[in-house]
Design goal:
Helix content is about 40%, strand content about 20%. By secondary structure, it is an alpha+beta fold.
């Protein structure tokens, strides 16, 4: 379709159309058409013609007829795909529906030089209505872009329209004549053809191509195999990680990548995939040379559009480097744990040395008050030393079982004050409470001070009694600790927050360090959710005035913002 044909003058176009109409009228003369003898056409013929036209209009493909110069003579209703009505195109040139960039595929000026002097058969002549008028050939499978009405205003819309042009007939892209093709005398009347919309097909093909390209470029190995384990697809990464060429894997069994020991496990994996639709986990695969390497694979059941299971998709990742890194991390952690244990062990030993020195020094002190200070200092050091000892012996170096710690600390204090355990009993309720070192040490020191005070002052004159420590967590960060006794009670004339007692000053300072609060009351005066009865087996002779300290605090955070495990 060169410019000469597209822009021919209206008079020649009109003359050409008049000739066609003349030929058609001659062809449909009364002597050529069936008659009922009265000069009228048979109604059945007219009905059949109308029925055929209706059928053409109802077909889901564009059917058209153009005259020898490329102007529309007929087009069915399917042209509405391009936002045209049939009447809009009658008398218009065929090029009106073809994208300008695709005119070169169908125009006489560009197509014919490609075939000059060559024999072109039915399937080799990618021409439309402008091809040479000799020979028996047609245009087939020519893909072109179609443009809808008003495409200049919305070119994005036009790019979404794609078509496949299939022409039928002889010569000039399925031209039709007023005489048989083999006749020496024949006149070319025009071209008929069919246009099928390929938009969805090409979009689907583009999507398949995109997905296929993504799978081919994936760093993970991807393979698809049938239920008989024969591989129907394998991407390059899958072949390379197993040291095979892609052709060597296709149509072979997936089991060739596993040894006999793993074949049974592979069968189990495939059975689980069939049952559950998918599976994932670590596996040991084998290369072509027989060497093994660790992989992480996931399998997925593939189904057709009817929901029938047809194949299995396997995605495989070589985790050799991961395993090496994991082993290095494990070794580093082991070394770190050993180092931390050694640090805690040495810290504990150093604190015990200090405690022993104080004990030796106390042997030379005759002043009772000074001796008491040495004893209290030793107990404080022991409470800190005990934390390091528990961490040293703990499987988790980050936290200690605080209930076990409290019991050990109480035993040390009872031994230090030479307490008869049959006279003063000790109760602990702190199950499943684990504290890190930054929280455990101040809590241990608080317990040391308050239990020491109770042992020294709460039970005069060899009085029976009970000391209770209860610790619970409320949420992941908030804790409450209740330390109480059923002894004589705390003196009413002493403000425990403002006192000269070093022990109570230490307690108040440590509570602030824990960002907590402290309250004082009598025995069993505090009832909190999570605690059981405060004092068990109380001394009936004593009305249980006693002393109770309720301390609420938060888990201490590390300086870098990390929180202790607890």
């Amino acid at each position: 379709m060169d410019n000469k044909n597209i822009h021919k003058d209206k008079s020649s176009t009109k003359a050409s159309k008049d000739k066609i109409r003349t030929r058609k009228s001659e062809k449909k003369s009364s002597k050529d058409m069936p008659s009922n003898g009265s000069g009228k056409f048979k109604p059945a013929i007219l009905i059949n013609e109308k029925r055929c036209l209706n059928l053409l209009d109802d077909l889901p493909v564009i059917i058209y007829e153009i005259d020898p110069d490329g102007y529309f003579v007929f087009v069915n209703n399917s042209i509405e795909l391009l936002d045209y009505k049939p009447a809009d195109l009658i008398g218009k040139h065929f090029s009106i529906i073809i994208h300008p960039d695709d005119l070169a595929f169908v125009s006489r000026s560009s197509v014919l030089p490609q075939f000059k002097g060559k024999i072109t058969g039915d399937k080799k002549a990618p021409k439309l209505f402008d091809e040479r008028r000799t020979g028996r050939r047609s245009t087939r499978g020519l893909e072109i872009r179609l443009i809808p009405k008003g495409w200049e205003k919305d070119q994005e819309k036009s790019e979404k329209k794609t078509g496949l042009l299939t022409l039928h007939g002889e010569v000039t892209s399925s031209g039709h004549y007023d005489a048989p093709v083999d006749s020496d005398i024949k006149q070319f009347l025009g071209t008929v053809g069919i246009i099928r919309d390929l938009t969805e097909k090409m979009e689907a093909e583009a999507e398949i191509k995109r997905l296929s390209s993504a799978m081919d470029q994936s760093i993970d190995g991807v393979a698809i195999f049938r239920f008989d384990l024969v591989i129907s697809y394998a991407n390059e990464a899958f072949s390379k990680m197993h040291s095979f060429e892609n052709e060597e894997l296709l149509d072979s069994k997936i089991s060739k990548l596993y040894n006999k020991e793993n074949e049974q496990k592979l069968d189990e994996v495939l059975n689980l995939t069939r049952q559950n639709g998918s599976w994932k986990g670590e596996f040991l695969n084998f290369r072509k040379d027989g060497t093994s390497f660790p992989t992480f694979i996931s399998t997925t059941l593939l189904k057709d559009n009817k929901g029938k299971s047809i194949e299995i998709l396997m995605v495989c990742r070589d985790i050799t480097e991961w395993k090496k890194a994991e082993e290095q991390i494990r070794n580093a952690l082991t070394e770190k744990e050993l180092l931390l244990k050694e640090i805690h062990h040495r810290t504990k030993n150093n604190l015990q040395v200090i405690s022993s020195l104080l004990k030796l020094q106390a042997g030379y002190i005759e002043n009772e008050s000074v001796l008491e200070v040495f004893t209290e200092t030793r107990n404080r050091i022991k409470s800190m030393s005990l934390v390091h000892e528990k961490l040293y012996r703990s499987e988790d170096l980050a936290v200690i079982d605080f209930e076990n710690y409290i019991k050990s600390l109480a035993s040390q204090l009872f031994a230090s004050f030479v307490i008869n355990s049959s006279k003063i009993r000790f109760q602990v309720e702190a199950k499943n409470v684990f504290l890190g070192i930054d929280t455990a040490i101040p809590c241990g020191l608080i317990i040391n001070e308050l239990v020491s005070n109770a042992l020294k002052h709460a039970f005069p004159n060899n009085m029976d009694g009970v000391i209770s420590i209860e610790l619970t967590s409320k949420g992941k960060e908030d804790y409450a600790m209740l330390i109480q006794d059923n002894g004589m009670g705390f003196p009413k004339d002493i403000d425990f927050k403002n006192t000269a007692s070093l022990g109570l000053q230490i307690v108040n300072t440590l509570v602030k360090q824990l960002k907590g609060s402290i309250e004082i009351g009598s025995c069993n005066s505090f009832k909190m959710g999570g605690f059981k009865s405060a004092i068990k087996d109380t001394n009936k002779k004593n009305e249980c005035k006693g002393t109770a300290f309720l301390i609420k605090f938060k888990r201490i955070q590390y300086t870098d913002g990390r929180k202790q495990n607890a």
